[in-house]
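Q: Could you predict the 3D structure of Alpha/beta hydrolase?
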Amino acid sequence: MTTVSAVPVPGGELVVGRWGALDDSPPVLAIHGITANHLAWGMVAPLVPGPVVAPDLRGRGGSGSLPGPYGMAAHAADCVAVLDALGIERAVVVGHSMGGFVASVLAHRYPARVARLVLVDGGAPLALPGGVDIETALGPAVARLSMRFASHAAYHDFWREHPSFTGWNPAIESYVDYDLAGAEPELRSKVNEDAVRADFVDLHKGAEPLAAYAALRSDTVFLRAERGMFDQPEALYPDPSAIGLAVTTVPGTNHYTILLGEGGARAVAAAVS
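A: Sure. Here are the predicted structure tokens for Alpha/beta hydrolase:
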């Protein structure tokens, strides 16, 4: 069961989910992706022996109303505030998708707080497809944020049509339900569009993520999804050798099911345990 708390950060409070009690077991700090929330870790966390702490990043989930500045360095600082508030000196830090970039910047700027780093289909530089600008690349992610849904069931139907979510399960349902704000029939995503735009530019072009990547040890664990964001055969990282880290491709997973599918969740949990 998840315990939810709030941690003071500049501009307000960051909502934090936690699985397990903070005891002598090594804690895991889990950092979600660009339009996700802490329940993206809902299948991984129960498989980890020790406690898992997962914030809703600034501009997402229960932290959706927090103002900027955004960017990887701001999220890393918020994550350190979470560790401070919970009395955690060092944690195993795992980040998925954009969370991988946040995790890398966290390790670069605050190395004393990171016992070990695990990157999950994110954190290594990503090139935009030839001829595609930032606005075009953002299109599918941003479109959902302006949509309205008549009910939770309608939002479920929207996600069920996503090619990466054909294997529907209770963890996915909880994850998408938590993303909703407002009241029927005007439900909407909690994600702040300004945060997504700022973070997307930073992870692609920002100096901080590039410097953090350049500083990574070559034996840093990188779990790569076999398939892409829309379950297409081409992965988000098509060439494992270009990543330059200790890459393991997790078979049968796409960019989402590497967390929210059984096989992917087991692989991620094993890597952080």
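Q: Anything worth pointing out?
A: The longest helix spans residues 72-85.
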